Amino acid sequence: MQIDAVDQRIIALLVADARASYADIGARVSLSAPAVKRRVDRLRATGVIRGFTAVVDPAAVGWTTEAFVELFCAGRTTPAQIGVAARRHPEVVGAYTVSGEADALVHLRAADIAHLEAALERLRAESFVTSTRSTIVLSRLVESPGVGPSA
Q1: Do the Cβ atoms of 25 and 11 come closer than 8 Å?
Q2: CB 30 within 8 A of CB 45
Q3: Tell me, what's the pLDDT at 59?
Q4: For residue 14, which phi and psi values (nearest 5 degrees)?
Q5: φ, ψ of residue 141 in degrees (nearest 5)
Q6: How far is CA 62 from CA 57, 65, 67, 137, 139, in A?
Q7: In what order do the strands lie in the sheet containing 65-73?
Q8: How many CA atoms lie within 13 A of 73 on its CB side?
Q9: How far apart are CA 33 and CA 39, in angstroms?
């Protein structure tokens, strides 16, 4: 699917505020509200926009401790197996296959170090995990919810 500059701006505006009205977006991209709606509908139908969600501040719910965990897996563990296991743990906020020595990288978020340790121990108990290497996040320097150029 071809995405033009107007589509990119619409996407950036929705990423910044998914509750923005079609009229507000239209005013920013020089289109009518119905024209913006047609474009958003097309972007949704083609899978460019997969949905709309609330972004929760982890500190507001008390989950301020986070770590990135490299997983080293046994034998022929597949990405699908890692994904299924990662979804079992509520502390996992992201899981990725990666290049390099590790088989996957898992982003964990927890209330405190004790909670993080418990989550890590449960993750290590997965049958295919042979070892892990963890890095605790000290501070967030950049965080961006979107892709592409900003609005």
Answers
A1: no
A2: no
A3: 86
A4: -70, -35
A5: -100, -40
A6: 9, 9, 15, 15, 15
A7: 92-97, 104-110, 65-73, 129-136
A8: 23
A9: 10
What is the pTM (predicted TM-score) of this model? 0.76
In the numeric block, which tokens belong to residue 101?
A: 């020595």
Taking all residues of the chain, what is their mean pLDDT, rounded to a whole number? 93
Please state, in angstroms and rounded to a whole number, the distance separating the CA atoms of residues 108 and 90: 9
Tokens 């605790």 -> residue: 136
List, for residues 25-61, the tens digit of each pLDDT value.
999 999 999 999 999 999 999 999 999 888 888 889 9
Question: Is residue 143 over pLDDT 90?
Answer: no
Alpha carbon dihedral 31, 37, 39, 41, in 10-degree steps, equals 180
Q: Tell me the pLDDT tens digit for each residue of 100-135.
A: 999 999 999 999 999 999 999 999 999 999 999 999
In this structure, the dihedral spanned by the alpha carbons of residues 101, 102, 104 and 106, taken in order and rounded to 10 degrees, is -130
Q: What is the DSSP string of 48-63?
A: SS----PPP-GGGGT-
